[in-house]
Amino acid sequence: MYFGLKDLKMIEEETMEHNFHDLVVGARSYRRFDHSKKMTMAELVAVAELGRITPCGGNNQYIRFALSADEKTNAEIYQNLAWAGYLSDWDGPVESERPTGYILILRDLSIQKNLTVDEGIVAQTIFLGAREMGYGGCMLMNIKRTELMKIFGLDPEKYAISMVIALGVPVETVKMVDVKDGDIKYYRDENQVHYVPKRSLKDVIVKEL
Q: 73: Cβ–Cβ under 8 A, 6 or more apart, which residues?
C-alpha cells in the first residue's frame, strides 16, 4: 500500500496524539510500589530537570527541589506523610510497597512566599516525565512540613515545602470510571484495583463557540 507524504504526516500526528494521551492516562496517582526496584538519584535529577525547565508565572523561577533516593532517609520521610484520605481503613503502603524516591517541591522564600499554580504545573511535568521512565507517583500535601525540613536540614527562613512527590515502580492497577450520583471519591475493590471516578467530557466543557 502506498502512502503519500500527506498520509504519512496524518499518521504521525495521530500516533503522537495517541501516545501523549496514553502517557497522561498512565500518569495517575499511585500509592503502592515495588520496593525492590529502586529509583536512582540520577533518575530523580533527570525528572527534577524537567521541573526546572517548566514554564512559570513571570519567569520567577522560585521553585527548588530536595531529592532522596536513600533507603534510610526515605523511611524517615515516609513517617511524615498521610496517604489516601478517602480510604479511611488504609494506613498507607506496607514496607514492601513503599516509594523508592522522593522529590520535595520547595519555594525559595526570598522570591515567593505563597503557594501558586506553578507548583502544580511543575509537579505534573515531573509526573509525566517519571511515567515515561516507567515510574509512577503520588503528590502529597497532607504532610508534616517541620519534620521534613529537619530531615533534609533545610532552613525554614529560606525555604517552604509546597508538596512531596513520592515515586516508584507501581504495583497497583488504577482505572478511571465515570462519576455516578456525583460521587468523586476514589475507591478499591476486593482485588485492590484502585478506581478513580472522572466527570464526563460533556460535564466539564461548559461552552463551545
A: 151
To the question of pTM greater than 0.90 for the whole model, the response is no
CA-CA distance, 130 to 169, in Å (whole number)?
Answer: 10
**Non-local CB neighbours of 36 within 8 Å, separated by 6+ positions:** 96
For residues 73-102, give the mean pLDDT: 95
Q: Are strands 194-198 and 63-68 parallel, antiparallel or unpaired?
A: unpaired
What is each CA distance from 178 to 30, 87, 93, 203, in whole angstroms? 19, 19, 26, 11
Nearest to 121 by CA among 50, 54, 25: 54
Tell me the C-alpha distance between 24 and 125, whole Å.
10
DSSP track, 56-90: -GGG---EEEEEE--HHHHHHHHTTB---TT-TT-
